[in-house]
């Protein structure tokens, strides 16, 4: 018995790991008096050796699949071991891991067996059992199975904290090439069902307080990066549109790890594009927390992100007319745009300057990356400079003083530097 | 320079602040009695802990400062660092002298000092919430022994009480020789000497029959969820520093 469950867990965790989302935050489900589990700010209980957070028990219900998507390990033409959990096995694993403080909750996805509704119905049954029989109030992330009926998606939303469905490829053309059985239209329909119900439940809740929760941590999606030849602009414009249209909480970017001999995609052994992935996330953060419009960072003149420097520094170097910023007088919004100053430092600066003018030594103590910020700001005791330095000079100085954490892993990127 | 020697308790620390204003001393160094080394040239006085005085000081601080900063003062205290005690003292004196809410004055050395140390303590609190691994004993108790960098048990008990409301659990700090025990209704602080916990542990070591299976399954899961093509041990260790590996069954 225990050997069989160990084997299943190995197969079905291995197949689920390419879904990068492991967020357990953003929900507001609290424990009941005689229940177990709650949600809140999210906790990473451990990290894999590749440095990703492990917050949820992330498994597939089964890796049997009727689809044949070229980028997926579970595609039907792939020669891998297949397995399937029973409903009770998933419930028992989740509860026992949770009670030992191993995890924040369950992330359940699945290959599609028989048909979409059959698969989705099993997944809903697991969530329902956890909530109603186990009185479990921890986090549940359910994947929507593309093409599942509206009723099932709606029912899933009553038990899940977050739901997601993956766009897979940033553009419809890319998707058609690698996964002809899927389409962005279907994804949009499913995201739309959840969005419309979210709005409906929220409206009802404002009138009737006891309206049940519906996907309180919202929806997310994921795109594979580097399997086909989209530009960073294509990727981020798609992300922006989905954030807007479906009020997504997160878009994830997953650097493609070659797993197939398919001639349409990078060959096995190619390094996953980790640095590019990192730059895309930085851009995503600039859009969501720093008040940048995506067009400021990516446009027809700059369709791809600079690999050498981060997108915020890159924007500042392209727009010297806004700098230097005087941190004693400038708007919060403008302080936030100084390279080397993050959201927390910017807020601290705005608070601290009510008590007196800010000097360099205080800034350093505040947690600002001063060696980077100093080219773009002035404070009380900054030395007067006759000419502002050239952007190219600043870039050179900053690069000389910093060491990219990715260069050691990927020596061929060195050549880009000069 | 005057030296105040207090008993190391939070009450004692508050009383130092009371004394400072009562005696109108201007330059004061405060030191916990365990760190105090008397010398012939210092003028030191012993401050006695008095609940009433401490309450008055806290009441005053509550009027003066925002809630987050009051919490930061307490968190910084739990770091048990001498430098933290001094920052707390100075920041409180600054607050009473300025007669305005100085919580946001991050340009001030002591306000920033308190806020930085409080952040370190919060981080350790968060790590304990993440890295604690319970074992289930045959009698149904979920237990663990920890040795956190700072005294964070007072900060983590609400989290565990809310989350595991329907199971009994015990978290024991072997460094500070006390633990928190939840009996299904409320949390009790229990003082136990390490010898006592050692004699208690064999009883707990009679594990639940499924304990070793789930321990093994978790280790298997940890291995399977790794993506070897992306291996980055530097990042791994940055997130899970080696000193925490002893807590983590998946790292054994």
From TrEMBL, chain B:
It holds the Pfam family DUF4130. Residues 85-250 form the DUF4130 domain. This is TIGR03915 family putative DNA repair protein.
């Amino acid at each position: 018995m225990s050997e069989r469950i160990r084997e299943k867990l190995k197969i079905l965790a291995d197949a689920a790991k390419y879904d990068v989302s492991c967020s357990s935050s953003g929900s507001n489900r609290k424990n009941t008096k005689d229940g177990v589990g709650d949600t809140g700010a999210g906790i990473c209980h451990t990290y894999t050796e590749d440095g990703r957070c492990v917050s949820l028990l992330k498994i597939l219900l089964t890796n049997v699949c009727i689809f044949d998507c070229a980028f997926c390990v579970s595609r039907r033409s792939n020669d891998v071991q297949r397995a399937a959990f029973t409903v009770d096995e998933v419930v028992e694993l989740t509860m026992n891991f949770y009670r030992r403080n191993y995890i924040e909750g369950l992330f359940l996805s699945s290959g599609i067996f028989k048909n979409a509704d059959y698969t989705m119905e099993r997944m809903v049954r697991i969530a329902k059992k956890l909530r109603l029989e186990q009185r479990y109030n921890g986090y549940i992330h359910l994947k929507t199975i593309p093409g599942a009926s509206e009723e099932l998606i709606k029912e899933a939303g009553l038990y899940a904290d977050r739901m997601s469905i993956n766009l897979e490829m940033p553009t419809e053309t890319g998707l058609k090439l690698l996964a002809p059985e899927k389409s962005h239209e279907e994804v949009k329909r499913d995201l739309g069902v959840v969005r419309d119900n979210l709005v409906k439940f929220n409206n009802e809740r404002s009138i009737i307080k006891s309206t049940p929760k519906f996907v309180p941590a919202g929806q997310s999606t994921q795109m594979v990066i580097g399997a086909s030849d989209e530009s960073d602009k294509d990727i981020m414009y798609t992300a922006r549109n989905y954030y807007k249209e479906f009020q997504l909480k997160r878009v994830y970017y997953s650097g493609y790890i070659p797993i197939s001999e398919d001639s349409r995609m990078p060959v096995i052994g190619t390094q996953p594009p980790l640095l590019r992935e990192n730059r895309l996330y930085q851009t995503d953060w600039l859009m969501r927390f720093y008040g940048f419009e995506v067009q400021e960072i990516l446009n027809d003149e700059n369709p791809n992100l600079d690999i050498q420097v981060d997108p915020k520094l890159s924007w500042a170097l392209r727009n010297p007319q806004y700098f230097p910023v005087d941190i004693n007088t400038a708007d919060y919004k403008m302080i936030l745009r100084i390279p080397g100053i993050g959201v927390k430092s910017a807020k601290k600066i705005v608070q601290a300057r009510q008590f007196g003018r800010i000097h360099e030594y205080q800034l350093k103590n505040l947690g600002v990356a001063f060696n980077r910020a100093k080219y773009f700001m002035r404070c009380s005791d900054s030395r007067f400079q006759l000419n502002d330095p050239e952007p190219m000079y600043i870039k050179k100085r900053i690069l000389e003083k910093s060491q990219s954490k990715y260069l050691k892993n990927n020596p061929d990127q060195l050549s880009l530097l000069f | 320079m005057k030296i105040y020697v207090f008993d190391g308790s939070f009450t004692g620390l508050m009383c130092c602040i009371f004394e400072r204003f009562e005696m109108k001393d201007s330059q004061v160094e405060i030191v916990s009695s365990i760190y105090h080394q008397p010398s012939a040239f210092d003028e030191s006085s012993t401050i006695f802990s008095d609940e009433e005085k401490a309450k008055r000081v806290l009441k005053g601080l509550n009027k003066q400062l925002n809630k987050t900063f009051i919490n930061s003062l307490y968190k910084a205290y739990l770091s048990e660092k001498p430098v933290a005690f001094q920052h707390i003292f100075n920041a409180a004196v600054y607050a009473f002298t300025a007669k305005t809410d100085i919580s946001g004055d991050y340009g001030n050395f002591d306000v920033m000092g308190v806020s930085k140390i409080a952040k370190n303590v919060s981080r350790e609190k968060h790590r304990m919430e993440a890295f604690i691994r319970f074992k289930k004993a045959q009698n149904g108790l979920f237990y663990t022994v920890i040795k956190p960098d700072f005294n964070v048990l007072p900060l983590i008990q609400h989290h565990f009480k809310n989350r595991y409301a329907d199971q009994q659990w015990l978290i024991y700090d072997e460094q500070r020789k006390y633990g928190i025990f939840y009996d299904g209704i409320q949390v009790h602080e229990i003082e136990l000497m390490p010898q006592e916990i050692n004699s208690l542990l064999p009883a707990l070591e009679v594990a639940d029959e499924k304990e070793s299976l789930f321990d093994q399954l978790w280790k298997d899961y940890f291995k399977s969820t790794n993506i070897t093509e992306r291996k980055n041990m530097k990042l791994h260790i940055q997130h899970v520093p080696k000193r925490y590996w002893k807590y983590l069954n998946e790292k054994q």
